[in-house]
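Service request form, structural biology core

Requester: graduate student, group of Dr. S.
Request type: structure prediction, single chain
Budget code: on file
Notes: please return the result as structure tokens.

Sequence provided:
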Amino acid sequence: MKITSCRLFQYEVPFQSKFFLKKTNIQARQGLLVELTDENQCCGWGEIAPLPQFSKETLPEAQRQLQSLFPHIKNQEIPDGAESLNGKFDLWLNQYRLYPSVRFGLETAVLNLLCRQNQKTLCQLLGNVIVHRIPVCGLLQGPINDVINQAVDMINEGFTSFKLKIGREGFPGDLETIESLRDILHNQATLCLDANQAWSYEQAIEFAQKIGPEDIKYIEEPFADTKMIPDFFAKTRIPVALDESLVTLSKDQAKSIKGVNAFILKPTILGGIENTFSWIRQAQRHALKTVISSSFETGVGIITLANLAAAAGEIHITAGLDTLRWFKNDILKSPFEVKNGHLDVRENIRSIDELHAQYIKQLS
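Core staff response, request fulfilled:
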């Protein structure tokens, strides 16, 4: 299959209320969409959306790289067997030294082209599995009353796992919120906490000892020094999940840390689908959980991530993909929504006609 044309679009989708990333209020999500077309006029779409304060590249940098890349990949053949994710993308794309978000979007567009050619969903193409839906971890955010109301509503909708951002407002607020959540969970759901390395090691120990391990599945990135995780686990009995640290740790280093029980995998940050599946294979060899998670992509990216979670075979692990509810509207005319605590993985975008025109503009 040959890539015969490349088009690039920019989007901006507003958040429905105040939304914070590392204490910064973000008004809207901005990103890029890439469309690749083959000689049969089939289209494959991918999303490139560096996450402010988390991605190493900015949106303008990603845009410039994509526009300079297009002349090199136009009229090129897609490598045979690229969907096996066993190094074919590396052999093809490593020479261009792509930013992580660019690599994710480009690989996604290529794989979606292959889906169209083979008349398969992405999870069928990648994992040779037929899955209709995957469970999702509910994302809780905001003041305590909002968090409690969100949790009650989502339990009624069928959610069995929740993620709560902590470490921004100080111990008292976080402790009160967690205790209030425990009062309403009643063994119906578990809680994942995400500190984004907000604490020192000593602060993390103090906090964890105050809350105890009851109903806590893990704490994501409680502090920055991964060498202290075994001591933290020994003193608190609360497992740790790695997210930001995966960018700096090797796979061998990450899987060897005692007290780590899960990898939070964000392909936009890690650098594509092939690299993400390399992490999945490493984790599965060592009985570690992998959680496919969003970097607040639009529905275009979330559809891809849901299919990746299904293809990974861990269909009983709740994916971190409950982020679209924070947008005022999705970029898709038919929103890709969580229903009864699950996402349907049979969806895919096929043409520009499926996108809201007011949110996008063509760049090239």
